[in-house]
Amino acid sequence: MISSTRLTTNEFAQRFYPGGKPNPPPPNAPSKDGTKVGAPTEIPNHAILNDVPGVATSCLVYNHDELQKHAGDSTYPVPPAEDFPYLRQLASRQAVFKRVKDDKCVFLHMLLSPEDGLKIFGQEFRDELLGIQRDVCPYLV
User: Fold this and answer.
1) Per the domain annotation, does 118 fall within a domain?
2) Which of 132, 131, 112 is nearest to 121 (CA)?
3) In a domain? residue 119
4) Which of 20, 32, 38, 95 sits at 20 to 30 Å (Cα–Cα) from 82?
């Protein structure tokens, strides 16, 4: 199983500052006193970094390097049936993130139960998703 860290939304916000931690100025950027300061950064500060959707109740953080170790042919293996009892329980409205640096995460998706989906998005949206699910995966419906 690929390891992850489960955090409350408050714990996540304390550990991963919303929007990412402020980056140092770019190289050769003038400071307030006119001198050149700064250093390049690998990942720019961006609005999508470390932001948690408002309806999320918890956050699941995966390390990018760990995901890469398990990716193989760009797909992740389905565990054998006997390993399923050891997998974590899915929690509705759990935001899933990929940690790309120590202080920066990118939101990937949110796990959502049908009941929560109905409350949040309404019946028409839920019916559309169920139709897609039937088309994509007829054996699991």
Assistant:
1) no
2) 112
3) no
4) 95
- What's the number of domains the chain is made of? 1
DSSP state of 138: T
Helix (H, G, I), strand (E, B) or coil at 7: strand
User: pLDDT of 9-23, one tens digit each?
Assistant: 999 998 998 877 665
The reported pTM is 0.66
- With respect to residue 87, please indicate whether it lies within any of the assigned structural domains: yes
Position 4 scores a pLDDT of 87
Q: Is residue 107 part of a domain?
A: yes
Query: Quick one: how far is CA 129 from the chain centroid?
Result: 21
Residue ranges making up the domain that contains 86: 5-112
Nearest to 59 by CA among 22, 100, 117, 98: 98
CA 49 to chain centre: 9
- How many CB atoms are closer than 10 A to CB 25? 14
Length of the chain: 141
Token couple for 111: 């796990």
